[in-house]
Specification:
mainly alpha, 192 residues
Amino acid sequence: IKIIKMDKKNSTLKDTFLSAVQSYKNKDFKNAQILCYKIISIDPNNLEAILLLSSIFAANRDFVNAKKMLKSADIIKPNNISILNNLGTVFTNLKEFKDAEVCYKKVIEVDPSNSNAHYNYGLLYLELKELKKAKIFFKKAINLEPTFAYAFLALANINVDEKEYETAVSNYQKAIDLRPKLVNAHNNLGLA
């Protein structure tokens, strides 16, 4: 990070970014956003501020602006798997499924062991109602990361849809064992 004085208080970009992160953690998204824009006004290619802005927009379900920020980040740091994975998630939320698929494919090409990309790819196929494909990606995510509770939960939900109740119960139980406070797993287990 470049160290540039921003005002009379000798605040630096780094300090401002740390304040933005703290505001974000405190769910003060408005202040975090203001601070990020302040950083970007001085350093337009500040990747950290751009990525934090994308997170703020996504947290507020403003996926159009999250997409703009992530596309800017992708220009600054092309083919970064984290940026592409997040961009894929944003595309999925915007129902831009072909673009989401391109992102997840790129991530998996670069890092075949990226469990999050496999999971997100599964969510994409779930959104498209292609349960068999979704199931393949959730299983791959679990094979790569056996403690991936959300992948077990998603897989269990598909098991229920396919009337594989015993397998669903087993997968819900695995999700609960891994994350005891995973409310959806508890609720769905009671219905399976």
